[in-house]
Amino acid sequence: MAKKLAASEKRLVKEQQHAVVVLDQWHVDPAYKEKAREKFLENNKEFKKYKKDYCNFSMSMMGGSESNSHEISRISCVASQNLYYIEQVEENLRYIRKK
Q1: Where in the chain are the domains?
Q2: Considering just the CA atoms, what is the radius of gyration of the chain in Å?
Q3: If pLDDT is split at 50, 70 and 90, which confidence band does 97 have?
Q4: Does the domain at residues 2-93 carry the CATH identifier 1.20.1270?
């Protein structure tokens, strides 16, 4: 599971970097481009916080498990959230017309 988490984190960073490049190539007024870039970077920070809070809440619903199931579930939760966010970013980038 740790390898899957690491892979999802690596893919997330790569997708976030790619999105910035795509936004920079967007064929639109520079003011709109800058605003979108700014909001995207802000959203990335918010996602990091949301992901942590969401997975902490999810873990709290497991109760007092004695095994390592909490850690396995936490890793699974974080990886799943990463992949879902990547899908959202990819979907939004489909609508950008490049120069």
Answers
A1: 2-93
A2: 17
A3: confident
A4: yes
- Tokens linked to 52: 């942590």
Based on the number of CB atoms within 10 Å of its own CB, is 36 exposed (0-12), middle (13-18) or buried (19 or more)?
A: middle
In the DSSP assignment, the letter for residue 28 is S
Measured between alpha carbons, how far is 11 from 86 in angstroms, rounded to an integer? 8
**Any idea what DSSP says for residue 68?**
T
Rounded Cα distance between 90 and 18, Å, is 10
pLDDT tens for each residue of 53-64: 999 998 888 777
pTM attached to this predicted model: 0.85
Task: Compare 69 and 10 and report the one with higher pLDDT.
Answer: 10
CA–CA distances in Å: residue 52 to residues 3, 20, 27, 88, 99: 18, 23, 35, 18, 37
> What pLDDT score does 61 carry?
81
Beta partners for 98? 26
